[in-house]
Design brief:
The complex is a heterodimer of chains A (166) and B (712). Helices cover 16% and strands 45% of the residues of chain A. Chain A is built from three helices and eleven strands. Chain A starts with a helix and ends in a 5-residue tail after the last helix. Chain B has five domains: 151 residues, Up-down Bundle (Four Helix Bundle (Hemerythrin (Met), subunit A)), CATH 1.20.120.160; 159 residues, Alpha-Beta Plaits (2-Layer Sandwich); 60 residues, Orthogonal Bundle (Helix Hairpins), CATH 1.10.287; 181 residues, Heat Shock Protein 90 (2-Layer Sandwich); 129 residues, CheA-289, Domain 4 (OB fold (Dihydrolipoamide Acetyltransferase, E2P)). By secondary structure, chain B is α+β, with helices and mostly antiparallel strands. The chains are: A alpha+beta (166), B alpha+beta (712).
Chain lengths: 166, 712
């Protein structure tokens, strides 16, 4: 074993000490909806754009706000607030549209009140939430992450973007 | 040719790698099979037409050669035996009989199966089709029992050929080094052959074919001399034939077979070369350089003359060829459809960018000078032309699809035991490539339906005073921005009562519903899944798949299908398809402050209607327009938005048409005509039936496209 390898293992150990264990980490974008903070797995995010004019599409569920033009592509945009039965969106300067790339449905935009930061959470910092809750909102959450003493609800994007059965 | 040249440099010891030619092989085989189908049909109705026989022979021969080159031995064997039959027909030794036509069609089916196998697995499969080969041989033996079953025609074919060619290899001027090589070879016990290879008249890539011949022959031996020179042959500087002198250990037969295995080679003749007979043979010692050069010059002049004669002949030939109605091969380049899609997308982007410029210049009209407008107009004309050209590149005649139908109808006529004839028109009508690829199955369903359900049996027809032979018509034509394809038969038509009873029986409608339904609506029930009125399930139809598949397929292509029928007189199925799918001219309108696009193709007129002109019929708003009653559709209600107009304002009504139905769409304002690029709304939004897509406007906003057809 040569010196270089030794060095790097030492460094790794040091890093491990800081985080206590080697564990899988995921980066989340922290967004704000009303007073709550939510995390979205960065792997699903294609783009974050400023709020722009949304073209309404008739005869669709209310949470589907319409479509926008994202560099020549027409992308549907949904209101995550309406989907989660929160009060309707108030558009401010901080409002952003997060474009998610989903395997099944293609790209979909969701409206959020504010994009705050990117955090890295290890599995030990995430508490799974039981899915059997019958209360509407909980089903959109896949877990709760703890970061710097704050709680971040991690959005379960599949259930968020799942179409309502009308 | 680059590939070929590389291969030439790579030596000849390996078996040629043919995989890169597989695609071309498949395409060409399909073309040849289609051609054979058409020609054999022609032969059936006109057994004495020698042009047809010749054409068939040529196609079969090419197929054989291609299959051989690619190493598909079973395919080659079958085509070989077919070719033998045609050859005998051509020589007048056997006459065309109906049984023979049947066998030939079976052969074509078998070949198609091979081709399909190759397409899927790159292997022809293991079906030897021995019964077919036996039948072919029986046909051959039928004319003279004494002839041996295997290749009885080879000899008569080769013999006259030799006479014609006059043993051209003897005309080649050999220099002494070549004579020495020949002498060496003979000493080593190798054979020296002269070969004359004639390329088919119709061959386009003569040089490529010649190159393949060179390759094939080089596998058997060594080419010492070629006239014209190998370089000239490669540069296509030869008429229809070239001559080779080959040193080989193989039999003459094998060498000829190798050369013949290349497709589009009309004829290969060969013989053992007698060096002393060649043009300027002299014993090596007497040779002088000067005279040799002279001789060489002579030959090249001869070749030159030859070519000029050929050049003079060619135009005459093409003219003659064009007359028998055979499609003249276009000069084409095969382009990957994905590359075209990319090009198309770029054109779309360009059009959007152009629209932005137009919008920007309109906004700043006060500031800008006329110059900008001029340039924008120029840009507009360029983008429009570019769009048209790209669209045209994607357009193909529907011929490629409908060509297979005459054969299908012939087979149906036999299986159903009904006499029928198919008349086609408008095969040259062009449609987008993607549409043409998809339209085949629906059309086939409709034709089968017409043959099976539509036409009555011959006895029945005679009883009704109709000609015993039923007629099915397939007509295609362009109508505005649409292409219309009609399938018409003069059969029994649709029995509305039978459909009604069936629908009730199946529970599709209640008897009460049935009583109030119009005939037209009842006929439309036929398009429901699993609905078949055939009295018995036959091979041809009646399994409940068909019309619903037809409709969903055509709707997926943004088209529509309609049926008109008269009991006892026949039915007409009309398919209407948009010419292009990606970019259309549209009318931009405003409803409740929102912009929408309506495709110009469906718009008839635009009317200004006073509120007092609106009448109520069955509680629905209608207007009277030049003698027709047209129902009004208030777009603000459909789109669930407040209209910006007041009750007393005049209405802007866009009259749209779908088939023979019309409707008036009430909008708030008109913006004008615009070229729009159709974008999908994505899979996520799909509930909306009357929104066919979206488009991006010049200012970057998205406007929805209203599907007038879905509104009516």
């Amino acid at each position: 074993m040569d010196m270089q390898q030794l060095m790097s293992i030492n460094e790794l150990n040091k890093a491990g000490d800081e985080r206590k264990t080697f564990e899988e980490t995921v980066q989340y974008i922290v967004i704000r909806l009303g007073d709550e903070q939510y995390g979205i797995d960065i792997g699903y995010i294609d783009n974050i754009v400023r709020m722009q004019n949304i073209t309404r599409v008739p005869k669709v569920p209310a949470y589907l706000k319409g479509v926008i033009n994202l560099r020549g592509e027409v992308i549907p945009v949904m209101s995550i607030r309406l989907k989660m039965d929160l009060p309707a969106d108030e558009i401010t300067r901080a409002t952003r549209v997060i474009i998610l790339k989903l395997e099944q449905e293609g790209n979909v935009g969701i409206i959020v009140d504010e994009v705050k930061e990117v955090v890295t959470l290890g599995t030990s910092q995430i508490e799974k939430v039981a899915h059997d809750s019958t209360e509407g909102k909980a089903t959109f959450i896949s877990g709760v992450g703890k970061h710097n003493g704050e709680l971040i609800s991690l959005l379960d994007l599949n259930s968020v973007t799942l179409e309502d059965n009308v | 040719m680059t590939n070929d040249e590389n291969a030439a440099g790579g030596g000849t010891e390996d078996k040629m790698d043919v995989s890169q030619y597989l695609e071309i092989f498949l395409d060409e085989t399909k073309e040849h099979l289609q051609n054979l189908n058409t020609q054999i049909l022609e032969l059936e109705s006109n057994p004495d037409n020698m042009d047809t026989v010749n054409e068939i022979f040529r196609a079969a021969h090419s197929l054989k050669g291609m299959a051989g080159t690619m190493g598909y031995k079973r395919m080659q064997n079958l085509t070989h035996d077919m070719e033998n039959v045609f050859s005998e027909v051509r020589n007048g030794n056997i006459s065309v009989k109906p049984e023979m036509i049947d066998v030939l069609f079976q052969c074509l089916d078998a070949l198609e199966e091979y081709n399909n196998n190759i397409q899927e697995t790159a292997d022809e499969g293991t079906n030897e089709n021995e019964p077919l080969i036996k039948q072919l041989n029986d046909i051959l033996n039928g004319k003279s029992a004494s002839a041996p079953a295997s290749a009885p025609t080879e000899t008569p074919k080769a013999a006259p050929a030799t006479e014609n060619s006059d043993e051209k290899w003897n005309d080649i001027a050999l220099d002494d080094s070549q004579i020495r090589v020949i002498g060496e070879a003979k000493k080593q016990g190798k054979n020296v052959y002269g070969l004359n290879v004639v390329v088919q008249e119709t061959c386009i890539l003569k040089a490529a074919r010649a190159f393949l011949v060179f390759k094939a022959v080089e596998e058997k031996g060594e080419i010492i001399v070629s006239a014209p020179s190998a370089q000239d042959v490669e540069d296509e500087k030869f008429d229809r034939d070239f001559t080779l002198i080959v040193v080989s250990e193989a039999d003459l037969k094998d060498v000829i077979a190798a050369a013949e295995s290349v497709s589009e080679i009309a004829k290969v003749t060969g013989a053992l070369l007698d060096v002393e007979k060649t043009k300027n043979y002299r014993p090596v010692e007497e040779d002088t350089v000067a005279s040799n050069v002279e001789k060489k010059a002579e030959t090249s002049v001869a070749v030159e003359e030859n070519r000029q004669v050929a050049a003079a002949k060619t135009p005459a030939k093409t003219e003659k060829k064009a007359t028998p109605g055979k499609p003249v091969v276009n000069r084409t380049v095969r382009v990957d459809i994905e590359k075209l899609d990319v090009l198309m997308n770029l054109v779309s982007e360009l059009i959007i960018a152009k629209n932005s410029l137009v919008a920007a210049s309109n906004q700043e009209q006060q500031v800008n000078n006329g110059n900008v407008n001029e340039h924008i107009e120029y840009l507009e004309s360029v983008t429009t032309n570019l769009h048209e050209s790209v669209m045209k590149v994607r357009m193909v005649p529907i011929e490629s699809v409908v060509n297979k139908f005459p054969r299908m109808i012939r087979d149906l006529s036999k299986t159903l035991n009904k006499k029928m004839e198919l008349y086609m028109s408008g095969e040259e009508t062009e449609l987008d490539r993607t549409v043409v690829d998809e339209i085949g199955d629906p059309l086939m369903h409709l034709l089968r339906n017409a043959a099976d359900h539509g036409l009555e049996s011959s006895e029945e027809r005679v009883k009704r005073g109709k000609p015993a032979t039923g007629s099915i018509f397939l007509d295609a034509y362009q109508e505005g921005n649409n292409v219309v394809i009609e399938v018409r038969d003069d059969g029994n038509g649709i029995d509305v009562e039978a459909v009604k009873n069936k629908a009730i029986e199946r529970g599709a409608i209640t008897p009460e519903q049935a009583a109030t339904m119009a005939d037209k609506d009842i006929i439309n029930l036929l398009f429901l899944p699993s609905f078949s009125t055939a009295k018995k399930v036959t091979d041809v139809s009646g399994r409940g798949v068909g019309l619903d598949v037809v409709r969903s397929k055509i709707e997926s292509l943004s088209g529509e299908v309609e049926v008109k029928t008269q009991l006892g007189q026949g039915s007409t199925w009309t398919i209407r398809l948009p010419l292009t799918l990606a970019i259309v001219q549209a009318l931009m309108v405003v409803v409740g402050g929102e912009k929408y696009a309506i495709s110009l193709g469906s718009i008839q007129t635009i009317e200004d209607i006073a509120p007092s002109d609106i009448k109520l019929v069955q509680n629905k708003e209608v207007i009277h327009l030049r003698g027709t009653v047209i129902p009004l559709i208030r777009m603000s209600e459909v789109l669930e938005i407040e209209s910006t107009k007041t009750e007393s304002d005049n209405l802007v009504v866009v009259i749209v048409k779908k088939g023979d139905k019309m409707a008036g769409l009430v909008v708030d304002e008109l913006i004008g005509q615009q070229e729009i690029v159709i974008k999908s709304l994505g899979k996520y939004i799909k509930q909306c039936k009357f929104i066919s897509g979206a488009t991006i406007l010049g200012d970057g906003e998205v406007a929805l496209i209203l599907d007038a057809n879905a509104l009516i």
